[in-house]
Amino acid sequence: YFGMWIAVRANIRTAKNAVIGLNPALKMAFSAGTVNGMLLVGLGLFGVSLIYMWAYFSFISQGAAVVASQATTVLVGYGFGAALLALFMRVGGGIFTKAADVGADLVGKVEAGIPEDDPRNPATIADNVGDNVGDCAGMSADVFESYALTIVAAMILGGTMFGLKGVVFPLLARSGAILTSILGTFFVSARSEKENPIRPLIRGFVVSAVAAIIIFMGLAIFLLGEPRAGYAAVSGIISMLALLYVTKYYTGPGEKPVVSIAQASKTGAGTNLITGLSVGMESTFISVLIIVATIFAGYLFLGFYGISLAGMGMLATTGIIMALDTFGPIADNAQGMVEMANLKGQAPTVTASLDAVGNTTKALTKGFAVGSAAVAASSLFATYFEATGLTAIDIALPKVFIGLLIGGALPYLFSSRLIGSVGKAAFQVVEEVRRQFKTIPGIMEGKALPDYSKAVSIVTSAAQKELVIPAAIVISAPVLVGILGAQTLGGFLAGVVASGLMLALFMCNTGGAWDNAKKYIEDGHLGGKGSETHKAAVVGDTVGDPLKDTAGPALNPMMKIVQIVALLIAPLVIQLFGK
Fold first, then answer.
1. Could you tell me which of 67, 37, 76 has the C-alpha nearest to residue 168?
2. Which pLDDT tens digit goes with each residue over 67-104?
3. 322 to each of 140, 182, 265, 448, 510, how far by Cα in Å?
4. Record's Gene Ontology CC terms (predicted)?
5. Which of the chain's ends, N or C, has fewer CB atoms near its CB within 10 Å?
6. pLDDT tens across 295-305, in order?
7. Distances from the Cα of 197 to the Cαs of 1, 192, 328, 347, 356, in angstroms?
8. Is the pLDDT assigned to residue 402 strictly greater than 90?
9. Tens of pLDDT along 135-157?
10. Cα 127 off chain centre by
């Protein structure tokens, strides 16, 4: 709620400041994003801290072990609430934003030949609203969930290894990380009007990451007396930086893979799609290697607790990461407002450069969200062993292998429902836009206004209806598989993480690469806007939209919610169906 509330007020101010120059517009967009980022980490830590304080003051007389046990029991419920909301926001928000975007692009750009954000397009307002619904509300809920769940996993496993100190360590580490994110924001300022806006954003992020490393190591040495805890957390920070770099390489404008997709568009949409799929698959392999290295390093340093600390490290700079993510839709909407208002002077150039950077930051934060979700899910997988008393699962058992296969297939079923929902809703939007072009005279000449509310109503209704079945599938699947026993459920959880991680990375990176290949052509390369090459790239971008903004991001909460449902039902599964 706060993320959207802030974004819709900041975008018009950013557009206004763009008339003055780059730095005022950059500072406005980033400052608004910072408020959202700090609210997210502050509220996440506040909720966990309240639960810990309740447990401490209620049970301290019975000993530190009881405090840790009571706190972690309630924290599982807290994590489930965050996971459930994230699932609804990602699914509903993703369907809303991409149905509007695809519908607006297909009729506006391809059929009518009018620019993006043109006020003559009846779906343009729904498209702009969708930017906030998907990239502010959806992303905030998703990262909040990972943020909360990594603390929950670290407190549960830390309490087992280090007692009360192990429970307190994640809280203090998170508090210090918030301060490092705030520190990083002071370094976000353009040194000149000609500086690329991405540079000050990267400066702030790097300062925040370095300061977080110092905080984690200091607390590990002086509070826990165990430097390996710091090493595990630092491995998470390093892997996050590596993931961001890989995402930038495979999806960034002007990068070699993106240019290769643009080049392939010269021979039509088919070769554009084939090259994009190839790039997405390669990026998935490299990204998975980084996440595997993170999990292995965490386990090497401190076992399952080390994995949970690596997850905390990946999320150490969440405050500034979310500021970068919210910057994207604010800059995008500001660009749309400048275009719709037909502002002259330097405003169009300033907002265009901010929008280009915003697209890059959104792509980077998607890679971050997928990686952190995978490590958070791995941490919860470790807590599942803790809850069931299992020390291992035997994959040679047929029922365990069955669970693994069902878990691997579930993300595909889930994704198919979401992509199909976007297709159905986009079809309705396309039909409505075509109807208005035919029946309302004077729209194309700018003499009459379209009925913008109709497209908004269509995508809102579709988002609400279509999220029910995917959510029901995800919540019920672990319960049904649990009938086959705790080991089978463990195999199912492993399958969900393995398949969901790779599918999410593939979808997000492929869609991002197709998007920036189209933008590369729109910048004047290979024939520019309106050329046959551009039309082929628009097809690739349209196919990639529901992948990178609906199905791919929605797999993040999906991976985590099956883990936490399994954690909640674990005692019952052991009691009724055994190991």
1. 67
2. 777 777 787 788 788 888 888 888 888 888 888 877 77
3. 7, 12, 33, 39, 22
4. endomembrane system; membrane
5. N
6. 899 989 988 88
7. 27, 10, 12, 15, 9
8. yes
9. 777 777 778 877 877 787 787 77
10. 19
The string of DSSP codes covering 226-272 is -HHHHHHHHHHHHHHHHHHHHHHHHHSTT-HHHHHHHHHGGG-HHHH
Cβ–Cβ under 8 Å, residues 554 and 91: yes
Q: Which amino acid is at 392?
A: A
Contact 381, 564 (CB under 8 A): no
Tokens linked to 267: 């021979």
> What percentage of the chain exceeds 90 in pLDDT?
16
DSSP tag of 195: S
Q: Which two tokens stand for residue 312?
A: 């905390």
Could you tell me how many residues make up the chain? Answer: 579
CB 430 within 8 A of CB 103: yes
In sequence order, which residues have a C-beta less than 8 Å from that of residue 230 and are 6 or more positions away?
216, 217, 218, 219, 220, 221
The predicted pLDDT at position 411 comes to: 94
For residue 131, the number of C-alpha atoms closer than 13 Å in the C-beta half-sphere is 26
Helix, strand, coil fractions of the chain, as percent rounded to 5: 85, 0, 15
In this predicted structure, which of 191-200, 414-423, 455-464 has the lowest mean pLDDT?
191-200
Average pLDDT over residues 280-297: 92
Contact between 188 and 201 under an 8 Å Cβ cutoff? The reply is yes
Q: What is the pLDDT of residue 552?
A: 87
Angle at 509 (CA atoms; ends 505, 513), nearest 5 degrees: 170
Report residue 347 as tokens: 């405003």
The residue whose two tokens read 């517009």 is 25
The reported pTM is 0.85
Q: Rounded to whole angstroms, how far apart are CA atoms 400 and 390?
A: 13
Four-CA torsion 287, 300, 557, 274, nearest 10 degrees: 20
Q: Are 557 and 86 in contact (CB under 8 A)?
A: yes
3-state secondary structure of 254: coil
Phi, psi of 529 (to 5 degrees): -60, 140
Amino acid identity of residue 404, one-letter, is L
- The structure tokens listed for 110 are 């391809």
Which letter, b or e, does each residue of 320-353 get, where b requires 16 or more Cβ atoms within 10 Å of its Cβ?
bbbbbbbbbbbbbbbbbbbbbeebeeebeebbbb
